[in-house]
Amino acid sequence: MNFRIWAAAALCAFGLTAVPAPSQAQEAGGTLVYIVQPEPPSLASFLSTSGPIGLVAPKIYEGLFDYDNDLKIVPALAESYEVSADGKTVTFTLRQGVTWHDGAPFTSADVAFSVMEVLKQVHPRGPNSFREVTSIDTPDEHTAVFNLANPAPYMLRALSSYESPMVPKHLLEGTDLRNSDLATSPVGTGPYKFVEWKKGQYIRLDKNEAYWQDGMPYLDRLVGRFIPDASTRTAAMENGEVMYGAYGAIPNIDAVRLRDTDGFSVTTDGYSMINPMALIEFNTTKPPFDNPAVRKAVSLAIDREFLIENIWFGYGKPATSALSSNFAAVGLYKEGMPNYPKNADVAGAIALLDAAGIMPDANGVRATATLDLIPYGEDWRRAGEYMKQALAEIGIAIELRYEDVPTWLKRIYADYDFDFNVNYFYQLSDPVLGVHRHYGTDQIRQGTHFVNSSRYSNPELDALLAAGAQEADATKRAEIYGQVQEILAEDMPVANLFEMQFLTVYNDKLKEHATSAMGAYGSFDRAWVEQ
């Protein structure tokens, strides 16, 4: 299939739709109190894709596009776009009359700066999303022309406020991006303006009265509350203190109960763009996980079905490869990868360790390590307890470590001071956007969150990833990613655990909160509360 046909098909499936019309039944005004769990390390969404940041920042910042629940493009800061016949030029027509929250006009200069100087430089996924963008021309204030070295249709799937926020050039140019004041006092173009961050308690956002969508947002205020204790979060939902909790804020054990309680609902809508995968990242640079045999043994010893059924209450699907099975729809997923059992293969793990000469001592211990748990709630603590027991069966003795979000991020992605960690990544809508960052040598970017913390480096794999990013022929691309999955199943720098299904729990008085494919990572511009 040649590029033009492939690109046309991709853009048809990912078509451009009009800005959704306002609901005819909405009620303006009121405050939405929702759960932000845990407290964000910052609000610098241009630096980090940490989940808690995503619960707040996309209400403040905007992207060129949003996406509806059918994954069609919805205009945001860009009203339209045009792709050249060779796929190497993408021209965006920007919306006029948009201002930053400080009153400065939003222009094409902001777009060029955001992509070239910020997202391509310091964002976790930006270097892959915009890898082919060599320059951006700004012939006038409302036109941005992206010049590409090679066609990159996947780029059009990475332009949401969460994934690629547009940031104010006049406030960031010439500053230290990693220590910007915008990390704690953000200034965007979105429907809500940052007002206050009371550490340990809440973040408050108020309605942007100058928002470019007339009459929107409907709500006067958003308050994102931080409630560390899981049972207290559930109680706050039940007694009406909060109305919305996403990404496991309400533990699944409580969510399945509230699902059948009058006045509350549970949905899996709003996650279609992110393709989340629970996983283990190994530090491949030091013992015991510098040995692929140990990494594969860990993957064999984990009962993926047990995790799903007993900790996530049936919401999920066992991982079987480095790629989610959801990529089967576009022909990139390869079945039958080794070292990915649905249920634990303890005998296989022990045999593998024996063959590698990693023998137990007098106490039956073959190796020791510390497992760092992602600090996003009780489900992950329970998963860690299970994994400690499971790995003891093959002679790997582990200690569990659970820290606050900033400490955990620094330990894993800045200091590399860890043995292995349980975590989750978004594989997103194309491997280039969400998967490459795990494995590419060029993704060993110390200090950048959610990239190659394993420090795995394989020149053969690097070449395949580069080829996969540029290949337009669907059959050839499938062959490339088949080889990628084969290599990763043997080297196992990351062991995928299960394809996640997040639950959103909400009060039935809250309306139109899931109109975007980004869900809780959307703007809430259309959300309203029935009085």
Automatic annotation (TrEMBL):
Give the matching InterPro entries: Peptide/Ni-bd (IPR030678), SBP_5 (IPR039424), SBP_5_dom (IPR000914)
Ranges for the Solute-binding protein family domain? 72-426
Q: Report any one BP term from Gene Ontology.
A: peptide transport
Signal as a keyword of this entry, yes or no, is yes
Q: Under the GO molecular function aspect, what terms does this record hold?
A: peptide transmembrane transporter activity
Q: Where in the cell is it found?
A: Periplasm
Name of protein: ABC transporter substrate-binding protein
- What species is this protein from? Thetidibacter halocola
Q: What is the lineage of its organism?
A: Bacteria, Pseudomonadati, Pseudomonadota, Alphaproteobacteria, Rhodobacterales
